[in-house]
Amino acid sequence: MTAPLLSWSEKALRLLRKMDNFNLPGSSRAQCLKFEVDGVQVGWIPATVVPVLSRFPQVFTLPQRGAVALCPSLDTYSSRSEAVHDVIKALREENHFTCLRGWREEKYEVRARYCDSPLLCMERAATSLFGVKRYGVHVNGYTRGADGALSIWLARRSPTKQTYPGKLDNLAAGGLAAGSSVKQTLIKECQEEACIPECIAETAQPVGTISYTYEDEEGVFPESQFVFDLQLPVHFRPQIGDGEVQDFLLYPIEQAKDVLVSEDFKPNSAMVLLDFLIRNSYIQPDSERYYQEFVVGLHRPL
Q: 52 — phi, psi (to 5°)?
């Protein structure tokens, strides 16, 4: 029996639910244990990971009151970071978790809230084992023609990317590495991925964040993306930089709207484009039945 065709609105709603599936009925959330550092929850540890961590009692406490914590003796940023890194390296050598096959030599900082001081840092590939918050920067690059018509630049990811190879993506995007600011990451990703000069990249306007928590076979992913809008000169064309992109495509905004709900688009980047459409009134509350669900779905609490 053929499945019924979904409308654009239903596909967009399905995308948002998929990207926040950790908070939906039937997820593993009830089986996860809290991950605590210095008495503060900073993540969610999947039930399959808990027994493995119990092999390292000098680093992690045994589960109690629904939580696994770093040992209190690890009381500085450096001591916590080093101890956790040693555990993650050992697990990588054992080839125990598939997520560690994507080792990047890139550290993410761990904190309860973005405004808090970081408590430690850990290898990006391991963050899903602890369900710690991950932050990134995404850039909507757009142009306006002489007639006012808006078009948006999309990137086609390299076929060799570890994640979502060959999918459509925002103009530039990247994770917030330890020690880097949001603006530094913005300028770096614009330069490296799209060869956008700093004098243009720094004109990008911060327009908010999107946030969501999803889970898959590799763990739990609470993520928040800092979103920027960058108006580019009409005759400017992004150029391939570090090889993470194979092409840049300029889409009329209505065509971009259609493609964002397709399987051809990286899911969290599709959320960034959906947010752009809402903020620029290409999606209206009187004509879109799921307007409120879209707005709420783009800004889930972590």
A: -70, -40
What per-residue confidence (pLDDT) applies to 244?
A: 86
**pLDDT for residue 242:** 85
Structure tokens at 234: 């009409």
pLDDT of residue 12: 98
3-state SS, residue 65: coil
Hey, what are 276's tokens?
A: 């752009």
**Residue 264 near residue 251, CB atoms below 8 Å:** no
**Cβ distance 45 to 122 under 8 Å?**
no
Sheet containing 33-37: which strands, arranged edge to edge?
40-45, 33-37, 67-69
Give Cα 37 distance to the centre of its chain: 23
What local confidence, expressed as pLDDT, does residue 96 receive? 85
pLDDT of residue 1: 61
- Report whether 245 contacts 190 (CB < 8 A): no
Torsion angle (degrees, nearest 10) of CA 50, 51, 53, 56: 150
Report the amino acid identity of residue 71: C
Q: CA 220 from chain center: how many Å?
A: 12
pLDDT in the model for residue 290: 97
Residues of the chain with pLDDT under 70: 1-3
Structure tokens at 12: 């967009």
Beta-strand runs (E) in the chain: 33-37, 40-45, 67-69, 107-110, 120-123, 134-144, 150-157, 168-169, 172-175, 205-216, 219-231, 245-252
First to last CA, the chain: 39
Which burial class, exposed, middle or buried, applies to 195 when counting CB atoms under 10 A from its CB (0-12, 13-18, 19+)?
A: middle
CA dihedral over 117, 52, 135, 137, signed as positive or negative: positive
Evaluated on CA atoms 282, 286, 289, 294, the torsion sign reads positive
Calpha distance 71→222 (Å, rounded): 23
Residue-level pLDDT at 17: 97
Provide the angle, in degrees to the nearest 10, between the axes of the packed helices 267-279 and 8-19.
120
Q: What integer pLDDT is reported at residue 3 of this predicted model?
A: 65
